[in-house]
Amino acid sequence: MWQQIIVGVIVAAALLHACTKYLPAAWRRRVVHALSRRGFDQDKLAKLFKTQSSCGDGCGSCGSCDTPAPPSPPDIPGARRVIKLHVQR
């Protein structure tokens, strides 16, 4: 009896780990949002599932649209990085 309970706990922990690591980011946000609506702490869930809290509920506070794109480097020929390859024969 105890062996089956312990195996069940181990399988549940492995499933949780696989969900937090290998699910697409959009699915993880949906899981966090669904569980937070059912009374779980959204900040802890967001940290566990490696997402930002408040994403997915439509409040607009996730900050995804507030950050500007990084400036592109100028078109100066010396500003580009060149990787030199040395061929050994």
UniProtKB/TrEMBL annotation:
Annotated protein name in UniProt: FeoB-associated Cys-rich membrane protein
Top-level taxon: Bacteria
Species per Swiss-Prot/TrEMBL record: Pseudoduganella namucuonensis
Lineage start: Bacteria, Pseudomonadati, Pseudomonadota, Betaproteobacteria, Burkholderiales
InterPro entries per the UniProt record, alphabetical: DUF6587
